[in-house]
Amino acid sequence: MCRHLAYLGPPRPLAELLTAPPHSLYEQSYTPTVNADGFGIGWYPPDDGAGPVRYRRAVPIWADANLPGLAAVISSGAVLAAVRSATPGTSHDESAAAPFALGRWLFSHNGAVDRWDLLPADTGEPLTAAELLGMEAHSDSALLWIMAGRRLTAGRSPGEALADVARRTLAARPAARLNFLLTDGNSIAATRHGDTLWYRPAGREVTVASSPDTDEPGWQEVPDHSLLLATRHTAEIAPL
């Protein structure tokens, strides 16, 4: 299983979010499960009109000698990051590492879908030639992002887009594990189906993560088969 995290709040160095916490995403790359098939970080620069910017590698996060220096000097008030454990049969280059991007959107998928290459036909929404050519990677996560991005482009809200993709996928693949994270730098939409998901609202910030990265109070578990919608000031949960 992969692990991921999204943060909205006052600008903080990436190191404070990803490597410094006692149960950080960095630590979650090797315990309790090993996520050594790459990692990615997406963040929004302080300029409101800029970003997002992505840094993705196909190596384990602990093997990137450049990351500590970068994480110490780059700050952001909106971050989405993930460490990857690849689904069998998917790409192993950095293009398969979340976050995936479309305009101001960043997306990550924690989970797996069996026979994912047949999913478009089985859900009744085959991909166009342009969408096939535009897939960043040969993976279940990249395909799910195409499906979600198609809905966002059509004007669906973030929650509607993720919930619809989850429902259609589960109808065709009941055993699929579908934990999604989606942000535009101002809000977070997330789903939990099959793996753990937690969130921690604290003043003017919110963190959503596969597992709590600190021992501080305030972490709340998102129920299975739920949709979470969060901003820096609010958090709402609804059934998928």
From TrEMBL:
Gene3D superfamilies: Glutamine Phosphoribosylpyrophosphate, subunit 1, domain 1 (3.60.20.10). It is an enzyme of class 3 (hydrolase). Pathway: Amino-acid biosynthesis; ergothioneine biosynthesis. It comes from the Bacteria. Its EC number is 3.5.1.118. It holds the Pfam family GATase_4. Keywords: Glutamine amidotransferase, Hydrolase. Residues 2-240 form the Glutamine amidotransferase type-2 domain. Signal peptide: none annotated. It catalyses: gamma-L-glutamyl-hercynylcysteine S-oxide + H2O = S-(hercyn-2-yl)-L-cysteine S-oxide + L-glutamate. Catalyzes the hydrolysis of the gamma-glutamyl amide bond of hercynyl-gamma-L-glutamyl-L-cysteine sulfoxide to produce hercynylcysteine sulfoxide, a step in the biosynthesis pathway of ergothioneine. This is Gamma-glutamyl-hercynylcysteine sulfoxide hydrolase. It comes from Streptomyces litchfieldiae.
